Amino acid sequence: MKKRGTLLALSLLLGMTGALTGCGSGKNGEDAAASGAAPSGKASGSAAAEEDVTLKFISWWSYLKPELLKKFEDENPGIKVDYEYVAAGDAYNNKIKTLTASNELPDVFGTQGVTFESLIKTNDILDLKDAFQTPAYDKADKWGDTINPVLVTNMNSGLTSEVDAANHVWGVPFGAVSVVVVYNKTLFDGLGLTAPQTLDAFESNNKKLKEAGLIPMSYANKVGWGDWWLRFLLDQSTRDVTTDDFLTGKAKVTDPGFVEAVQKLKQLWDDGTFDPAGMTNGIDETQALFVQQKMAQYMVVPENFVQYLQENMPKGVELGAYALPAWKGIEPSRTLGGASNIVAVSAKTKHQEAAIQLAKFLTSETTFQQLADSDVVPSTKGYTPPEGDKIMGAYAEAAENGFIVEHTPGDEAGIKLFQDALPKILLGNKTIDKALGEVQALIDKNGK
């Protein structure tokens, strides 16, 4: 089985959701078609009319409040939702394992990563290909046409060829994890700085922030978020390279484009761009520095993190946000992230039409408008953030620009790159040539 790079998705989720794994068994339903919903959002199928049904739904998405699901119930008479929230990480992982093993997987559930693929392979997830051709929950458009295609591609890119994602729709992205820079606009204004439109302006801002005695930018390497910086730079210097290219020998980490990105990151580190304790600081330490106004910029995912910053900044401090500008001018300047959260429907649900209706609701513009206050980036196309919400606007813009694919080696070599070689390079404990040479030697050894 061919393995694809997964470090990017994992680094985005560390400290936020954890990596989820699971397995199960069952028989995949072949009839995935649903009658769809009328544009008003009312259920147009017969599932609710024939008999009252109760859908079991489970996720780790803490921002799904009872009133949102009550809205679905009110708009779909006869359908009730029995929702269970389970904390992310091991708790959710174990819950899914237990439910699958006992043949009690919920009608609708959240999934991601290796759990997603595992359940596909055991025929526990319903193929939504036909349902994607039926009307969306709140629009006359086909459901599939309302979902950001970049996120669907990203969701499928982590799957192996065995599950044939190109000819199936195994799940629907629920929101998008995108990364932008949240900054202290009050500090910026005081220094006469504005959000940068070029990387030169970004570096100029950082120099002035440092001269003012501030830490210009976060690194947060304790949870793997420091890895984002190399990935961002590689998307400009090696955009055509994929993880598979390292397996075949088509690309090497010692190639000029890869080395150039590492050199640029080293220069930024040596210039004092990042938190000097960023190699060991994690989310808690980084948030504290930002809230205490010791650090001016924080590269961060949305949802609970941004909400925490907004609620804990000193009174009178204004925040702004921007997507990182293109380093070498290659547009669009893509962001990190993608479809890490996925809505799936059980292949064994006894209420297929109603379950698909709930999945449509969860991935509708109606739902994402309701979740705007929780800083959830939508997975629908053409999303317009609430007027005046500049932070959500930045996340939405970044998502529209597309997402960086993995340009680094996977498996053992990828771990060595980010956990050994890169820290030693940045801290001056090993030269770029020597450190990357060791990573490439490991790739060559494992490829034999």
Overview of this protein structure:
The chain is of the alpha+beta class and 448 residues long. It has two domains: 7-176 and 341-396, D-Maltodextrin-Binding Protein, domain 2 (3-Layer(aba) Sandwich); 180-334 and 409-447, Periplasmic binding protein-like II (D-Maltodextrin-Binding Protein, domain 2, 3-Layer(aba) Sandwich), CATH 3.40.190.10. It has helices spanning 7-13, 47-50, 66-75, 90-101, 113-121, 143-146, 149-157, 185-190, 199-211, 227-237, 243-248, 256-270, 283-291, 304-312, 352-362, 365-370, 390-400, 411-426, 432-447, and strands spanning 53-59, 79-85, 108-111, 172-173, 177-178, 180-184, 297-300, 319-322, 337-338, 342-345. β1 (53-59), α3 and β2 (79-85) form a beta-alpha-beta unit. α10 packs across α12 (256-270) and α18 (411-426) runs antiparallel to α19 (432-447). It starts with 6 loop residues before the first helix and ends with a helix.
N/C terminus separation:
16 Å
Poorly predicted runs of 5 or more residues: 1-11, 13-49
Whole-angstrom Rg:
23 Å
Q: In which range does the helix fraction lie?
A: 40-55%
CATH topology of the largest domain: D-Maltodextrin-Binding Protein, domain 2
CATH architecture of the largest domain, please?
3-Layer(aba) Sandwich
Outline: globular
| pLDDT averaged residue by residue | 87
Helix/strand class: alpha+beta
Instruction: Write out the CATH superfamily name of the largest domain.
Output: Periplasmic binding protein-like II
Keywords: Signal, Transport
Family: Belongs to the bacterial solute-binding protein 1 family.
Protein name: Extracellular solute-binding protein
InterPro entries: Bact_solute-bd_prot1 (IPR050490), SBP (IPR006059)
